[in-house]
Amino acid sequence: MRHCSVQVRGLLTRDELDRYNALIDVGHYLEAQDRYDLVHTVQKEIDILILPAIERLKEKSRQRDRDTEEYLRRKEIERQMALLEAEDDE
């Protein structure tokens, strides 16, 4: 069984996380029974289950990029304002 990343697990809702943990347990049991044909099916279900959390992680990254861009824009405006004030003082 392949686990998803800690970042993705952290963005699963309580219900999604409970289902994820149950599916992982089932997958480990099936692996212990050498039922790899069924493990593949369980892994596919896990992959589908975590898709919303992956999208939430991507959105957090996009929001962080937007926030960084806004911060840099503000800093540039502040720098330009400081230059103008320095010119006015001369």
Secondary-structure topology with pairs:
Blueprint: H1 6-10, H2 14-32, H3 36-49, H4 51-89
Structural account:
This protein has 90 residues and is mostly helical. It has helices spanning 6-10, 14-32, 36-49, 51-89. Helix 2 (14-32) runs antiparallel to helix 3 (36-49). The protein starts with 5 loop residues before the first helix and ends with a helix.
Main sheet?
A: none
- What is the averaged pLDDT score? 95
Helical residues, percent: over 70%
Shape call: rod-shaped
Determine Rg (CA atoms, Å): 24 Å
How much strand content do the residues show? Answer: under 5%
End-to-end distance, in Å? 69 Å
Would you list the SSEs in sequence order as H and E? HHHH
Low-confidence stretches: none
Output the structural class.
Answer: mainly alpha
Main attributes of the structure:
4 helices, 90 residues
In a nutshell, what does this entry contain?
α2 runs antiparallel to α3 (36-49). This protein has helices spanning 6-10, 14-32, 36-49, 51-89.
